[in-house]
Structures are given as C-alpha cells and as structure tokens.
Automatic annotation (TrEMBL):
It comes from the Eukaryota. Keywords: ATP-binding, Nucleotide-binding. It comes from Dimargaris verticillata. The lineage of its organism: Eukaryota, Fungi, Fungi incertae sedis, Zoopagomycota, Kickxellomycotina. Belongs to the AAA ATPase family. This is AAA+ ATPase domain-containing protein. Residues 54-188, 325-468 form the AAA+ ATPase domain.
Length: 547
C-alpha cells in the first residue's frame, strides 16, 4: 500500500512541482481511503488502517495561482478514488431550500459509491465570514456541517472525504476546521528555491534551459507562485521566438537555437516584466534607480549597504560575528533630499520583492479599514518574503498618540495596530536573518509616535541633510553627464556656491526648467547654456533661496 501511495505521489510530482511532502501525504490518505473501498466490496479483504489514518476532511489554502486545484485534482485522479469537483458558489440556488437540497444530492451518489472525495473549490463562499452573514449562507453552512457530521454516526466506513480549497483562509469559522471536520490543513507556498526549481523544470523543456540557469532564477523568484513562474516561462519563450525569427537562419538553425539558446539574460529580462502576483494589491510602480544614479550621498549609501543589503547577501558571516540587522530603518530629512529615491535604489540593489506605499494611502475615513489594510500590508510582505517593505511618510500614518482631534481616535488605533504587526513580524523570524526588510521615510521624525522609534522597531535612524557644497557639486556634475549642459567650470562653482539652501530635487528641477526654456527659444537647440539656467532661476514657481 505504501508503495502504491509512493507511486501515485511520484506520478503527481512529475506534473506538480514544489509540494513533494504535501503530495505524498495526500497520496497516502487517498490510498487508505481506497483500502476502505476495497473492504466495502470484499469482506475477505485484509485489514484496513484505522479510521484515524484518514482525516474527516482537508482544507487546502494558498494564494491565487499556488496550484491548489491542479495539485488536488491531479493527486485524486492518479489515486483512482471516485470523486466529484464542484465550484462552491454553484451550490447556491434561487429558491428557498433548493441550495440545501442541492448540497444533499451532491453527497448522496458519492456515498453510494463507497469512500469518495468531494472537492469544493472556493470553499470560503460557503462559510459565514462576517458578523451578520446572509440567511442563505447560514443555512447552507449548517447543512454542510450536518452532512460531514453524519458520517461519524454511521457504523459503516463508507464516507465522503471533503477537500476544501480556498485562497481566503482568514476569517473562516473555527467550527469548520475543528476535529471531526476539515481537521487537516495544508498551506501551499513556494518558500524555498528548491521548490521553485522543481516547478521551473516542469515548465521548461530540459533541453532548452540548463539546470544552472534555472537554479539561479529559482533563487531570484521570491514570492512567485507556480502561476507566476508559468507566466515567466511563457514570457521567456516569446522573447526567444521573437529573437530567433528575426535572425536570418535556416529551419535547422532555428531549431538548434530553440533547444540550446535560452540564456540567463532571457530570464533576467523577463523578470523585469513579470512580478509576483501577490504584490498586486500594493503594487506601486517603483522607479528603476541604481545607487549610481544618486549623487553626493556615498557615505549614506555605504551605511545602507552595511545595515540592510550585506546582512541579507551574507547572513552566515553576520551570524558568526553576532551582528543583528536592524528591525527597521528610518530615513529622515528635509523634502527633496532623495529619501524615496534611496529606497528604490535599495530595492534594485537587493533584488528583493518590494512593496512601496505612502502613509496617506493606508489611512481611511472608515472605522477599522486602516487597521485592516495594515494587517494586509504585513501579510503580503511575509507571503512574498524575502521582501522590502517601504512606508513613505511614516509621520502621516503613525503620528504621536494623543494628538488626534477625531472622536474615533483613528491615529491611536492605527499606531496600536502598526505596533502589533511590527512586534509580531519581528518575533516571526530569526533575528540574525530577517526575511522582511522594513524601511520608513519621514520629513518630520519628531511627529512620529515615539513607541515606533524604540529599539526592536525602527531602531536605526539615518539623517539625510540638505546637500553640502561638495555634494551639490557632485549632483551638478552628475546631471551634466545626463543632460547636455554647456556650463564652464567657473560658472558651475558659482552656481553651487549660490545654491546653499537647495535640495537635490531643487537642482534637478532647475536644470529641467532650463532645458524647457532652451526648447522654447529654439526647438533645434541641443545645448543648455548659462543663460537658460539663469532664466530658470528667475522663473521658479517656488523660488530657490540663493545665497
């Protein structure tokens, strides 16, 4: 029997990658269920495992695209156990009483066939998930529980194994997952590179992608579901077809390219387009910024690399030295000094999944919505770990408690919720190797609730001041490489000296305005001159404070 379960698992693993342990467990459960069926048909059959070897029910949960339906259906089909697949919302009927009757008629033929499996997709639709669910949902849910419980009162071992599938596990009533019902819970998530490698090997022809390339890509696809990996493989294939067909080659040469020429560069190019679907809910467009695009902040950049990036890249070295990475990092300074741009550069350098959200986006006028969004934000970061979670304008999201002027105490509730999530997030992971890097920015650090700034939360603070003379010179020289600025060295020194109160954003806006002025004068201009810069200084909507 064990060999049969292993064979079923092996056949399934050839079609479903990354969940070997779960597949083997399910195959064993279904094999034991088959033994009950054999006993029902043959009274002289050998003894079957105790009833406890088959759970009363199973709940398979995971985000959309994790392969719940594909995995369960494949294992059940390979095990040859009678089954029925049903999308749970299809149970609901128009007329009163018809929904409960329909559910009963689903169970009846399965019971008559002996031990069988009922797969209920979108299982959460049958469960009351609010304080005041509809009468229809309550009746259907009660009938479902009754049908499951009836099996325990029957002397016969003939039964229906209910397997519920859901991508919304939070909020399901505890009564459905207690002992005797859907007591066995599996969570599908590709947390390890080896899991993603197995999925990639199934999705790609072994002759077209070398194992070393797939292993590298598996290490770069944190938070990807099997569906995301499938999208990635399809994108790579389309790129390869386009490249091969644009080349002047014979049919044989094209086939050789298909078989051997998928490169790491093909996958890396597709990774810039295909992102984890789990980030879609908080998917702000993050600028493709490199540290080389940031001028004059070399010291700050080095501090950030030491605090955030290197502990992630070399965890064992930091563990051996007993160095703990910060629980959270706060970048603060005046507007326009490059705090948010620095966060984008960290995301690029670390190659982590990144969630960037502004504090104002989380605040809601509806009671409880802000706290719910904070919980979802941290849940998404954990689900897509390793992940960089960036909260812009933390002072707007979490101001000092006691300063709220509303009767609902919105700010106090938000801060409390944020503290709870941060503390839970920090205890979820080994402190010497965090899977979520938390960064916040603020123009007004004094306005942030002090509880967030203590050790164990945002315990490292980096101040980015207005640029110094040398930093403004570096910024100007960097911009001169990117823009056709025809400025002599003496004028540049003079301009840098006159802009002592300017931020890096002020300087960028100044030169962009100068470029527009040059085009207004003559659309064929290819250079930005000193005169254009001087006119831009005079036309600033928010005048730069010159010295």
């Amino acid at each position: 029997m064990c060999n049969s379960a292993a064979l079923t698992a092996s056949k399934t693993q050839q079609l479903v990658g990354g969940y070997d342990a779960i597949v083997l467990e399910l195959a064993t459960i279904l094999q034991n269920l088959s033994a009950q069926q054999a006993t029902a048909c043959n009274s002289e059959a050998t003894a079957v495992p105790e009833r406890t070897s088959v759970p009363s029910g199973i709940l398979v949960q995971g985000a959309s695209g994790t392969g719940k339906t594909h995995l369960v259906q494949t294992v059940v089909e390979k095990s040859r156990v009678p089954f029925r697949y049903l999308d749970a919302p299809a149970i609901f009927q128009t007329n009163a009483g018809d929904s409960e009757q329909f559910l009963s008629t689903v169970f009846a033929p399965l019971r008559s066939r002996g031990p069988s499996v009922l797969i209920l997709d979108n299982f959460d639709a049958l469960c009351p998930r609010t304080l005041q669910p509809s009468e229809l949902v309550r009746r259907v849910f009660s009938r479902l529980l009754a049908l499951i419980d009836e099996q325990h009162t029957s002397a016969s071992k003939l039964r229906v194994l209910v397997i519920g599938l859901t991508n919304i596990p939070t909020g399901l009533p505890l009564s459905i997952t207690r002992s005797g019902r859907l007591e066995k819970v599996y969570t599908l998530q590709l947390t390890r590179a080896q899991q993603r490698l197995k999925v990639l090997c199934i999705l790609t022809d072994h002759s077209t992608a070398k194992q070393a390339i797939l292993l590298k890509i598996a290490s770069l696809t944190h938070g990807f579901t099997p569906a995301d990996l499938q999208n990635l493989a399809m994108n790579v294939t389309k790129s390869l077809i386009t490249r091969v067909h644009t080349a002047n080659q014979s049919t044989a040469e094209r086939q050789m390219d298909y078989d051997h020429n998928i490169s790491l560069a093909d996958f890396e190019a597709s990774l810039r387009v295909v992102k984890p679907s789990g980030l879609a809910e908080f998917n702000n467009k993050i600028p493709a910024v490199d540290f080389n695009d940031i001028y004059g902040l070399d010291t700050i950049i080095e501090q950030l690399k030491n605090a955030l990036i290197r502990p992630f890249e070399h965890p064992k070295v930091y563990q051996q030295l007993g160095i703990q990475p910060p629980a959270g990092l706060l970048l603060h300074g005046p507007p326009g000094v490059g705090k948010t741009m620095m966060c984008s550069a960290i995301a690029t350098a670390s190659r982590l999944n990144c969630i960037l959200i502004e504090g104002s986006q989380i605040r809601s006028k509806y009671v409880g919505e802000s706290e719910k969004m904070i919980a979802q934000l941290f849940a998404q970061a954990r689900q897509n770990a390793p992940c960089l979670l960036v909260i812009d304008q933390l002072d707007i999201l979490a101001p000092r408690r006691g300063t709220s002027q509303t009767s609902e105490n919105t700010s106090e509730r938000i801060v409390t919720s944020f503290l709870t999530e941060m503390d839970g997030f920090n205890t979820d992971h080994n402190v010497t190797q965090r899977n979520v890097l938390l960064i916040a920015t603020s123009n007004r650090p004094h306005a942030i609730d002090p509880a967030l700034l203590r050790p164990g939360r945002f315990d490292e603070h980096l101040h980015i001041p207005l640029p110094s003379h040398q930093q403004r010179l570096s910024i100007t020289q960097g911009l001169m490489k990117r823009m056709p600025l025809a400025l002599d060295e003496q004028y540049v020194e003079s301009l840098v000296a006159r802009t002592a109160n300017c931020s890096s954003a002020d300087l960028v806006n100044l030169f962009q305005e100068a470029a527009l002025i040059s085009l207004r004068v003559d659309i064929t201009h290819t250079k930005i001159t000193q005169e254009h810069v001087e006119q831009a200084l005079a036309l600033q909507v928010n005048p730069i404070k010159l010295v």
